[in-house]
UniProtKB/TrEMBL annotation:
GO terms for biological process: proteolysis. Pfam families: Peptidase_S9 (PF00326). Residues 108-244 form the Peptidase S9 prolyl oligopeptidase catalytic domain. This is Peptidase S9 prolyl oligopeptidase catalytic domain-containing protein. GO terms for molecular function: serine-type peptidase activity.
Amino acid sequence: MLNPTFFAYDEESTPDIKLISENRRGNITIQDITYASPQGGRVPAYMIVPQGNGPFAGVIFVHWSQRDRTEFLEEAITLAEIGIVSLCIDAPFLRPTSLKAPISSKTAARDLGLQIVADVRRGVDVLMAQPGVDRQRIGYVGHSYGATNGGIVAGVEKRIKTYVLMAGYASTSQVYRVSTHPMIAQGREKTPPAEWERYLDMIEPLDAVYYIGNTAPASILFQFANQDEFVSEEQALLYLEKASKPKQIRWYDSSHELNGQARIDRAIWLCQELNLGPLPASIQTKLG
């Protein structure tokens, strides 16, 4: 099922970054920007930039479906203190009409999946275009929606050195077939069976399990919750099993949102994998 050309985009085109506004938090600069999506439309994002000339690492953050680009904003501001330039992007389905790409309602489920992958890949271009960012030290952090689609990114985008995938689905199509969670079960029950099956057939090629095994040499940290109401232990272990090495998995006594210890652990992971040195105790305190 792995087909990197499925997610190909024009690597020679420009990100066309536009600055909407800029403000400062101490020595950290927070830019509200948009950049051109390879699939059409524009991607709203926050760029969080440390003080100085670098060299900096770069990290792309993608939120879960109940949130938006603000989910990781405070975390990114804290990480800027240790030399990380962050790009926090909005998912395609959250964008105002003026920024959305034209998508057919009949193929929206597939097209939106293709778009978020293309937008992350173009986000790598955006980070690499920033002064002082080391092209060899780019990371990715995704939560739920961001972790599920991050598994696809990991299989097709070879410029990212490490991934943190938080509470994501290994196989969305499988979950939608069997899950008893009310949000999913109600949608399944309200949709005619033939239409539901067509929908599942459309999204199955975007299941992360088909791509996550092609991540090496990039590393992966999986983070899952013991009390997750969405992601089962079976899905978590399937994701881990299908992923290429090097990989680690960590469990947290929390719900789907995860917790402060998870924030600390992924910061330690990013420091290790992006060659930033030990995470200072002061930063651990802020993240916890």
